[in-house]
Automatic annotation (TrEMBL):
Domain Glycylpeptide N-tetradecanoyltransferase N-terminal: 71-230
EC number: 2.3.1.97
Name under which the protein is recorded: Glycylpeptide N-tetradecanoyltransferase
Keywords, sorted A to Z: Acyltransferase, Transferase
Family: Belongs to the NMT family.
PANTHER family associated with the record: GLYCYLPEPTIDE N-TETRADECANOYLTRANSFERASE 1-RELATED (PTHR11377:SF17), N-MYRISTOYL TRANSFERASE (PTHR11377)
Organism the protein comes from: Gossypium arboreum (Tree cotton)
Length: 434
């Protein structure tokens, strides 16, 4: 991509674990450094014509500790929220995408399959499945009106998309109703026409109509202003395929057979009582997760309905495992990952990269390292090619030891209309967006 877009979870070319690829030194990824590096890379400090008009942390305010934490703007009376949609360029019209409809779901699937996020070298593109999209877009209390499409008036072809889903997000002691914004996509042929700002304003308007005034989102691009910047790490499960398709490289002084041996995993999980999560586990998992997430500065405020939706296993969408103590039958540990394949662009032999993404993991009795090694083992058994994880929560404690290698892109986390005084360390973030 020409705009240095290395967005959410974009597949990355990762050097093999032992090829001496170092992650960015910790200090380099501080917010001040990111902003400075970003601005240095421009001949003039880049202006954000759209984002400068929005209630988000502005670059000029970075480091100003006199500004209060919390909402940047107060809510406006609902009667003052604009009642009509924003204007689109005249060849286009708004559509609300009914994800219950097989036909609409297909259209969304195909728009994203052909136009959504790619890595910097355009070798891979996210290929969210239809079942995944239905899961991601229909959590408890979702609003159909927040699944927004743009069609060409004459052909009715779907050419752009943006979504929100409601979530309660805790920031320190405050639980805030927010929209999680995702799947912003403009057809390749309609890029750079300032359609994205109109889509963002329209989803914001529809969020306001539900009396919600804050949002959370991620992007691979630097915008004003990240609350934290994370890095993706990748654990090869099928190193031969990853090397064949250019996702990773053979390390120096490594042969294919040594590499395969390096990443080999046991056939079965090691932890006694490790099993798939079931419906009856929802109350115990909710307690475990709520207690665990409370230590982070920003995290979702999950109740049992949320846990049932987001974490109960759904085939080819989300996998969750837990440890039930063989003695007490207490649920002591939990791990989960979601399924997000990428299309492999222009490879003769392979068209799909099957990737698992670490989701929420909780260890109280089983060491996190052992728990995550068991997660790798079940992911391998399910035929995933790679297991990806962000350096959020306690993930840094297992990444290197379990042979994850750092990816080459960054994922920035943002809040809309909510100021955080200082950027967070990635380990202070307890939120994974899809
Ligand atoms: C992201 C995408 C929709 C932007 O559309 P575009 O045609 O490139 O850009 P437009 O001319 O419409 O709009 C540019 C404005 O959108 C902003 N923008 C670009 N990407 C953005 C993102 N991911 N999130 C929020 N704003 C974004 C730009 O910063 C710019 O605003 P600014 O002048 O204030 O900086 C488009 O490039 C796309 O579909 N890319 C592939 C999918 C993707 O990366 N989606 C985003 C996932 S986070």
């Amino acid at each position: 991509m020409t705009d240095n877009n290395s967005p959410p979870g974009s597949p990355k070319v990762n050097p093999d674990h032992n090829s001496e690829a170092n992650p960015l030194p910790k200090d380099d990824s501080s917010l001040e450094n990111i902003v400075r590096r970003f601005q240095d890379s421009m001949s003039l400090a880049k202006k954000h014509k759209f984002w400068e008009t929005q209630p988000v942390g502005q670059f000029k305010d970075v480091g100003d500790t006199s500004l209060p934490e919390g909402p940047i703007e107060p809510p406006t009376p609902l009667s003052e929220v604009k009642q009509e949609p924003y204007n689109l360029p005249s060849p286009y019209e708004w559509t609300t995408c009914d994800m219950d409809s097989e036909e609409t779901c297909n259209e969304v699937y195909n728009l994203l399959k052909n136009n959504y996020v790619e890595d910097d070298e355009n070798m891979f593109r996210f290929n969210y499945s239809k079942e995944f999209l239905r899961w991601a877009l229909r959590p408890p209390g979702y609003y159909k009106s927040w699944h927004i499409g743009v069609r060409a008036k004459t052909s009715k072809k779907l050419v752009a998309f943006i979504t929100g889903v409601p979530a309660r997000i805790r920031v320190r002691d405050e639980v805030v109703k927010m929209a999680e914004i995702n799947f912003l996509c403009v057809h390749k042929k309609l890029r750079s026409k300032r359609l994205a700002p109109v889509m963002i304003k329209e989803v914001t308007r529809r969020v306001h109509l539900e009396n919600i005034w804050q949002a959370a989102y991620t992007a691979g691009v630097v915008l004003p202003t990240p609350i934290t910047t994370c890095q993706y790490w990748h654990r090869s499960l099928n190193p031969k395929k990853l090397i064949d398709v250019g996702f990773s490289r053979l390390g120096p002084r490594m042969t294919m057979s040594r590499t395969i041996k390096l990443y080999k995993l046991p056939d079965q999980p090691a932890t006694p009582g490790f099993r798939k999560m079931e419906l009856r586990d929802v109350p115990a998992v909710t307690r475990l997760l709520r207690n665990y997430l409370s230590q982070f500065v920003v995290s979702p405020d999950f109740d049992e309905n949320d846990v049932e939706h987001w974490l109960l296993p759904t085939e080819d969408v989300v996998d969750s495992y837990l440890v039930e103590s063989p003695k007490t039958h207490d649920i002591t540990d939990f791990c989960s990952f979601y399924t997000l394949p990428s299309s492999i662009l222009g490879n003769q032999n392979y068209s799909i990269l099957k990737a698992a993404y670490s989701y929420y993991n909780v260890s109280t009795k089983t060491p996190l390292l052992q728990l995550m090694n068991d997660a790798l083992i079940v992911a391998k058994k399910k035929d995933f090619d790679v297991f990806n994880a962000l350096d959020v929560m306690h993930n840094e404690s297992f990444l290197k030891e379990l042979k994850f290698g750092p990816g080459d892109g960054q994922l920035h986390y943002y809040l809309y209309n909510y100021r955080i005084r200082n950027a967070l360390r990635t380990s202070e973030l307890g939120l994974v967006l899809l």
